[in-house]
C-alpha cells in the first residue's frame, strides 16, 4: 500500500516525518521545486532508486573477497546542542548491502566534587572526558551486541570477520581514550560472544578532519591527485604489517584542494595485509546507495553520519522498527 501526502507548507515536513518515524513507516519526500523544474528521466530514476533502497532492495553489489563472511560496522558522532548524537551502522547481509542502523543520544556527564574525588590528580575536564568515554563505550557495546544478533538472524550464522570503522572521535585526547578504553571493551565483547566463537577483528579509527593537503606535480603545475590515491609510507606514523596508518582520497576532487582521510588500524587479528585492507576500504566508498560514485569514507560511516543529520534536521529519534531499513536516505 502506498499513501501519498501533499504538503503545501514545507515547514510541516519535519512534523510529518517525525510522525511517520514514530509509527515505523518508511517515507519518501520530493519537493515542489524539483517537480516544477525541468523534468528528466534522471530525476525519477534517482527517486525510484532511493525508494528501492529504502524498502530493503539491493541496488548493486560490490565484490570484496577479503571481507567475505564479514560484518562491517561504522560509527559517527555529531554535536546536537549540549549533547551528542551517535549514529551506528552494521551490515546485516553477506553481500554488505543491507544494514542495521541505530541512533543514540548522549548527554555530557556532570562532574561534581564527589565524582571528581574518585579520580585524584585529574582535572574536572579530564574526568568528564573519561566518563564520556566509558558511557560511549557502553552504548557501542549494546549496539554491537544487537547488530550481532541481527546478523545471525538474517544470515543464520555469525560473521567470521568484524571490521569496525570508528569515525567522529574528536580531538587528540578523546582519540587516545577511544584507543585505550573503547577498543578493549568492544573487542572483549566480540571475542567472548559465545563459547568456541573467535571472530577475526579489525578496529580502524577514521579521521576526516585532516589539515594536510596532497598534490601531484605535473610539469610546472600542481594538481589534485586522482581518485583512489593512497599514501601509506614516509608521512604516516605506523607502517607495520598488522597495525598501520594510511591516507586515502577515494573520490576525484573537482573543487578546491583534495582533503585526504586518515585511517588508523589499532587492533587487527584478521591476517589481512595493508594492501588488502586499503583496497577493500576503497571499494566500500563505492557502496553508498544514495550516490552513484565514490564518497570520502566507507558507506557504513556515511550511513552512520546520515542517520545523525537526519535525526537532527527532523528533530526525532527514529523508531527501532525502522532499524533494518535505510529510511533516512
Would you kindly provide a written description of the structure presented here, covering whatever features stand out?
With 329 residues, this protein is α+β, with helices and mostly antiparallel strands. It has one domain: Ribonuclease H-like superfamily/Ribonuclease H (Nucleotidyltransferase, domain 5), CATH 3.30.420. It has helices at residues 13-22, 32-36, 41-54, 113-117, 124-155, 172-191, 274-284, 299-314; strands spanning 70-80, 83-91, 99-107, 161-166, 200-207, 216-218, 221-223, 229-231, 245-249, 261-268. An eight-stranded mixed β-sheet has the order 3-2-1-4-5-10-9-8, with helices on both faces. The protein starts with 12 loop residues before the first helix and ends in a 15-residue tail after the last helix. The mean pLDDT is 90.
Question: What is the topological layout?
Answer:
Elements: H1 13-22, H2 32-36, H3 41-54, E1 70-80, E2 83-91, E3 99-107, H4 113-117, H5 124-155, E4 161-166, H6 172-191, E5 200-207, E6 216-218, E7 221-223, E8 229-231, E9 245-249, E10 261-268, H7 274-284, H8 299-314
Parallel strand pairs: 1-4, 4-5
Antiparallel strand pairs: 1-2, 2-3, 5-10, 6-7, 8-9, 9-10
Entry keywords:
8 helices, 329 residues, alpha+beta, Nucleotidyltransferase, domain 5
Number of helices: 8
Unreliable parts? none
CATH fourth-tier homologous superfamily: Ribonuclease H-like superfamily/Ribonuclease H
* Number of individual domains: 1
